[in-house]
Recover the amino acids of this structure.
């Protein structure tokens, strides 16, 4: 664990936080008998929920690396001066929730944001930042500059290519790179063409900059691949990273039929996340292992150069004065081709601004609250107020404490981690495999001793899955599909049965083939689906399930709550609660949920609702509100803005 004050000053280390038993929760000290009860809905501010400094991209101008952040408010571009070995300036990016895309023309750096998608110009000579364009697209994934100074944008959804002309300020829409595909994840440009790497079905499109004519350069034998998600071009070659088989495509610009496919060799490698053609080689980085590779353009001969930081994602690879720089979550690594040495430089230690990020998950074990974010979680000690940083290679999306162990469902690859109180590191227990990507929930079934983790498939892939992990034996199995052509999103368990709520979206970028979310029951002993039905007409997802004594309760993404009679297998009542759904917690004869702004209490006898707290305006990553129940059942935890808050509850009608 790293105290937050040290996290802001020093390199993040792979340490983990102690977790306390859920079965025997160590709750906050009891209030004296004479203490005045805290009114239900009372908020206690516990400070910033998760403080981080995740990077999304970077560019060199002279001896300064300009690095853009993700998920902060506001996001920033930090200027890391190599000669001074420090971050000497920050430039606030006032819009958007992150910087994925950067490129340069001369001494100007262009910065692309997402949600809202704006284009900024950073004049590095004058030290000024100006918004120069806005586009309606959800994401600006990638930027590239042509030799004549035009800037090209790769966007989603759908996957389009756009051109910004700095001379005129005009944005020209070049249309969908591959009609029907949702993402242009990579763009590059030369004096004649702009190249677009497309997914969720792979294409490599060359668009004539003058005429708009386009052709697909992807070799026919690779037509079944998912993505061309990263790319680099030289005068003679194009190199594109393909998912999800961790392949690098190298092809000749003069004759695309002259090509080779190089597969990354680290065990379990899935993605090629960044590519650079330089000095006769294609340098590239893999995920999830974090391995750094290079291969010769002429022969395809592959070298493994090392693992700069285990399982870290490398967002950009750049060359500067004979060395190769890789931009990772809050750091850069530096590879020297002459010596083979890799140097690792944490930019927070060198002055890069760390700030509250948009949280992704929240969980309480009774003594501590865990707030998941990018590359780890902040852990709040409720007794002392101390905040420590848990480094995890990925994004904790869901958490569960059993006994002395806290389990974490981590994106990517639907990984399950565990940490036992007092241990120095978290342990990787399982990866779902089966083309799974995002864990969506965790539940434990005492009869079978199984932890149940539903997951969403990788972009472009069908059918979510259930990972069933045995706490007794350490063995796990993956059931896919479970509910055909849907993702299992939520789970609640009892007596050997897992109740499942679904999402109609399978892998991102794949159009849904079903129209309504389902409720299903799965036998954990016989490993078979028992039944399924559609509890809410037209619902896109059932994002949380919670069991009462006789009934099962669920909530949709639009805030509609339903009561399901488990004996009669029918919905008995529905209730509209807020405009968005969240985690739903049944406590006796009441239940609690949030829409991100209000916290609601539902009377399960009368099936009526009232807000108990308002004005949270929680800034959750992806806009999905979360809510944690303390094991004492006397408090909930959520966020107000980006601060963690304790919300007092009674658990009574």
């Amino acid at each position: 664990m790293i105290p937050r004050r040290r996290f802001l000053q020093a390199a993040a280390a792979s340490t983990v936080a102690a977790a306390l038993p859920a079965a025997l929760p160590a709750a906050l000290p009891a209030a004296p008998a004479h203490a005045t009860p805290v009114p239900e809905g009372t908020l206690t501010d516990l400070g910033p929920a998760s403080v981080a400094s995740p990077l999304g991209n970077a560019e060199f101008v002279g001896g300064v690396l300009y690095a853009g952040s993700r998920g902060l408010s506001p996001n920033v571009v930090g200027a890391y001066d190599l000669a001074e070995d420090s971050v000497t300036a920050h430039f606030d990016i006032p819009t958007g929730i992150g910087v994925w895309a950067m490129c340069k023309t001369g001494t100007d750096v262009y910065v692309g944001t997402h949600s809202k998608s704006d284009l900024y110009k950073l004049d590095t000579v004058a030290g000024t930042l100006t918004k120069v364009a806005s586009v309606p697209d959800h994401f600006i994934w990638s930027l590239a500059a042509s030799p004549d100074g035009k800037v090209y944008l790769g966007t989603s959804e759908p996957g389009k290519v756009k051109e910004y002309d700095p001379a005129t300020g005009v944005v020209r829409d070049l249309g969908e790179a591959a009609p029907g595909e949702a993402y242009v994840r990579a763009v590059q440009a030369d004096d004649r063409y702009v190249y677009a790497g497309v997914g969720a079905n792979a294409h490599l499109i060359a668009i004539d900059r003058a005429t708009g004519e386009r052709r697909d350069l992807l070799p026919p034998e690779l037509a079944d691949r998912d993505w061309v998600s990263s790319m680099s071009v030289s005068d003679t070659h194009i190199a594109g990273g393909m998912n999800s088989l961790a392949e690098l495509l190298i092809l000749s610009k003069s004759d695309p039929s002259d090509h080779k496919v190089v597969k990354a060799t680290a065990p379990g490698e899935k993605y090629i996340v960044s590519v650079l053609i330089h000095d006769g080689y294609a340098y590239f980085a893999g995920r999830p292992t974090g391995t750094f590779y290079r291969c010769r353009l002429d022969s395809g001969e592959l070298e493994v150069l090392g693992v700069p930081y285990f399982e870290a994602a490398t967002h950009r690879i750049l060359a500067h004065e004979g060395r190769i720089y890789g931009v990772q979550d809050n750091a850069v690594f530096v590879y020297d081709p002459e010596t083979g040495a890799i140097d690792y430089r944490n930019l927070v230690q060198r002055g890069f601004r760390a700030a509250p990020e948009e949280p992704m998950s929240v969980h309480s074990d009774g003594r501590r609250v865990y707030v998941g974010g990018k590359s780890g979680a902040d852990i709040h000690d409720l007794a002392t107020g101390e905040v420590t940083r848990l480094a995890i290679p990925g994004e904790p999306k869901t958490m569960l404490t059993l006994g002395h162990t806290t389990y974490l469902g981590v994106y990517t690859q639907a990984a399950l981690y565990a940490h036992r109180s007092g241990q120095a590191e978290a342990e990787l227990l399982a990866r779902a495999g089966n083309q799974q990507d995002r864990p969506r929930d965790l539940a434990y079934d005492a009869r079978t001793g199984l932890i149940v983790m539903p997951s969403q498939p990788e972009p472009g892939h069908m059918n979510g899955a259930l990972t069933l992990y045995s706490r007794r034996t350490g063995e796990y199995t993956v059931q896919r599909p479970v509910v055909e052509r849907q993702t299992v999103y939520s789970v609640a368990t009892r007596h050997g049965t897992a109740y499942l709520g679904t999402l109609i979206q399978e892998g991102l970028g794949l159009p849904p083939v079903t129209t309504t979310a389902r409720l299903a029951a799965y036998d954990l002993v016989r490993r078979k689906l028992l039944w399924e039905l559609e509890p809410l007409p037209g619902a896109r997802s059932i994002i949380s399930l919670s069991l009462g004594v006789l009934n099962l309760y669920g909530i949709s993404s639009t805030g509609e709550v339903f009561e399901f009679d488990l004996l009669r297998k029918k919905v008995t009542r529905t209730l509209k609660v807020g405009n968005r759904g969240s985690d739903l917690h049944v406590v006796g004869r009441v239940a609690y949920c949030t829409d991100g702004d209000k916290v609601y209490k539902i009377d399960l006898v009368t099936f009526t609702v009232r807000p108990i707290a308002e004005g949270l305006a929680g800034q959750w990553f992806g806009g999905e509100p979360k809510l944690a129940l303390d094991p004492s059942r006397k408090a909930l935890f959520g966020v107000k803005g980006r601060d963690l808050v304790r919300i007092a509850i009674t658990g009574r009608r």
Observations:
- The chain is about 0% helix and 50% strand.
- The first strand starts at residue 2 and ends at 3.
